[in-house]
Amino acid sequence: MNISIRPFQESDYPEVAVIYQQGIDTDIATFEVQAPIYSDWDLRFHKSCRLVAVTENKVIGWAALSPFSKRQVYSGVAEVTLYVSPLHQGKQVGFRLLSALIDASEDAGFWTLTAHIFPQNKASLALHQKLGFRILGVHEKIARRNGNWQDNTFLERRSAKIY
Questions:
Q1: pTM of the predicted model, to two decimals?
Q2: What residues contact 117, with CB distance under 8 A and at least 6 apart?
Q3: Cα(112)–Cα(50) distance, rounded to whole angstroms?
Q4: Which of 22, 25, 52, 68 is the right S-S partner for 77, CB 3.0 to 4.6 Å?
Q5: Contacts of 68 (CB under 8 A, 6+ apart)
């Protein structure tokens, strides 16, 4: 399968939203319950470091960074979001997207990436750890999803290029 990674374009959002909703529907990807409209999604993520994975002119995955904090001192810290279409999971799409996102983040001056992953999402945890993220701890019962308390594993990756 020929996969390319390229910058996100606004016209990609309908496909991105479908993939996002598919992840939401697993109950182990996010606390969100519905993919947002484009304007809300656009406000949530940094304008740089938005990527899509494409095959045969179809978006099959996406990744983006959101601000860790509004405080200037944390301007080089961002949180990773990554989703892959269920039809393309297990085919290195996530690995390629996260690798490209790490490179893009370092080129943009980010020195630390964070991730919050449900402990049940073993594939996502393994992917992040494979690419240099380390587990810092678990936020226990941090929020409810469908009325049930959920934990979140907190990970971070420091850039080797910036230091």
A1: 0.94
A2: 124, 125, 128, 152, 153, 155
A3: 16
A4: 68
A5: 74, 77, 78, 79, 112, 114
